[in-house]
Design brief:
repeat, Cdc20/Fizzy, 32 strands, mainly beta, elongated, WD repeat, four-stranded antiparallel beta sheet
Length: about 500
């Protein structure tokens, strides 16, 4: 078994820290309390049939009691007495201020809200401190728990705690995703062809890459590289796909063949024909291997029977470039260069669903591991949209325009998020939350279309490949037990290694 050198770019570029904008609101204006005088009209001002130019509102139905007024002392009037009366005025200031505050509360809110504690503050289980700083709000709206039909109160006694909106828990900050890959591998002869599928990561942590006429295996734990096969000068690798157990790997060739290899012993198990031209996409279920070709057909292969294939699915009018089995093996989704997304079941010769909303080739397909019958697909350059489908009824649930050609989609098994890779014109990698479709991160680094995507068995790392002949490893998803920020694993060495 020959060894080949795969060059590893070392330095892990430092991720730029995100720009955080702090929006500071201006300090509220300081408001001096009003002096209430002559609240009751004199009898002489009342005449029968006369209309007054003053309007005194009835506050019985108002909600002024829901505003927290500060217990700020009223200003002492100047010039009220001589030098002999200063001591008496100073001694009586506190009493006068307390009386004024009690009167103000009684007039505005009623007698029930006019009683004060000896210290001058309003009685309650959670009493707020007096507003003495100009940075505090003079009027602060509180939850009205006294109205009819109030569902519940935040305090034990059914009274509001006086904290208002300040007690609301702030939203959780978004999860941070490293903006730079932690590992970059050179992959010479990695083709820039939208319709091929040349990268796959097994459940046993082995990465398979099709380079020209050869397939190479890279073991993630040891960085060891093994040459699996060489198809020779007259053939080439068009697709690779591991079984779900990760011990066998299928290889689609330019001549329309499908080969099955034992990945642990690097030994070919079987070669199956049936396609007239290149086999660009493969998909394993638990027992069936499906292959899609430029000849527009999908063949179902069963290694337990001697024939090359057990059934043929005819429905696409152009090359089949996307193929994925659902997690329960009940449905097969296929995408083609005819802009169609078809859904088949195990026994049908005709598609159950024909979804034609895409306006470009459909290569990117992924089934949700969190919700049954949830399928996501992406369109090519003329479409640029990611669309979500309910395959139980064929309804489109949602869609988003990404602005670039959608090349691949993969759903995280740890959190309800998915990753998409793109081509023209931004060549970006995007992480999305579902069902809000908010962007978690946008990653850049590839200089050409990001045509290939695979996910590590632990669900935390993805590898992307492009026509720039590089493979880049990104930490984008959290682990199952820890939903905190993604951290670089010690498994990945930052030193230069040789793959090819």
């Amino acid at each position: 078994m020959s060894q080949t050198a795969l060059r590893l770019n070392t330095g892990s570029p430092i991720s730029p820290s995100p720009l955080i904008r702090t929006l500071s609101s201006p300090s509220p204006r300081t408001m001096s309390p009003r002096t209430i005088s002559n609240l009751s009209a004199s009898p002489s001002s009342k005449t029968n049939g006369a209309c007054s130019d003053r309007f005194i509102p009835c506050r019985s139905s108002s909600r002024l009691h829901t505003f927290g007024l500060p217990d700020k002392p009223s200003p002492v009037k100047e010039g009220g007495g001589g030098a002999n009366n200063n001591n008496n005025n100073n001694n009586n200031n506190n009493n006068n201020n307390e009386a004024y505050t009690r009167l103000l509360r009684c007039e505005l809110f009623g007698t029930d809200f006019g009683f004060s504690s000896p210290a001058g503050g309003t009685k309650g289980l959670f009493s707020s401190s007096p507003v003495s700083s100009p940075n505090k709000n003079m009027l602060r709206f509180k939850t009205d728990s006294s109205g009819q039909g109030a569902g519940y109160s935040g305090s034990v006694l059914g009274q509001d705690n006086g904290l208002g909106s300040e007690s609301v828990t702030p939203p959780k900050p978004p999860r941070k995703v490293p903006k730079a890959p932690h590992k970059v591998l050179d992959a010479p002869s990695l083709q820039d062809d939208f319709y091929l599928n040349l990268v796959d990561w097994s459940s046993q942590n082995v990465l398979a890459v099709g380079l020209g006429s050869c397939v190479y295996l890279w073991t993630a734990t040891t960085s060891k590289v093994t040459k699996l096969c060489d198809l020779g000068p007259n053939d080439g690798v068009c697709s690779v796909q591991w079984t779900r157990e990760g011990s066998y790997i299928s290889v689609g060739t330019s001549l329309g063949k499908v080969q099955v290899w034992d990945g642990t012993q690097c030994k070919k198990v079987r070669t199956m024909g049936g396609h007239q031209t290149r086999t660009g996409v493969l998909a394993w279920s638990s027992r069936i291997l499906s292959s899609g070709s430029r000849d527009r057909n999908i063949l179902q292969h069963d290694l337990r029977v001697p024939s090359d294939y057990i059934s043929k699915l005819v429905g696409h009018k152009s090359e089949v470039c996307g193929l994925k089995w659902s997690h329960d093996d009940r449905e097969l989704a296929s995408g083609g260069n005819d802009n169609q997304l078809l859904v088949w079941n195990q026994h049908s010769a005709q598609p159950l669903l024909k979804l034609t909303e895409h306006t470009a080739a459909v290569k990117a397909i992924a089934w949700s591991p969190h919700q049954s019958n949830l399928l996501v697909s992406g369109g090519g350059t003329a479409d640029r949209c990611i669309r979500f489908w309910n395959t139980a009824n064929g309804n489109q649930l949602n869609h988003v325009d990404t602005g670039s050609q959608v090349c691949n989609l993969a759903w995280s098994k740890n959190v309800n998020e998915l990753v998409s890779t793109h081509g023209y014109s931004q060549n970006q990698i995007m992480v999305w939350k579902y069902p809000t479709l908010s962007k978690v991160a946008t990653l850049t680094g590839h200089t050409m279309r990001v045509l290939y995507l695979a996910m590590s068995p632990d669900g935390q790392t993805i590898v992307t490949g492009a026509g720039d002949e590089t493979l880049r490893f990104w930490n984008v998803f959290p682990s199952v037990k820890s939903p905190a920020a993604v951290r670089d694993s010690g498994l990945w060495s930052l030193g230069r290694t040789q793959i090819r």
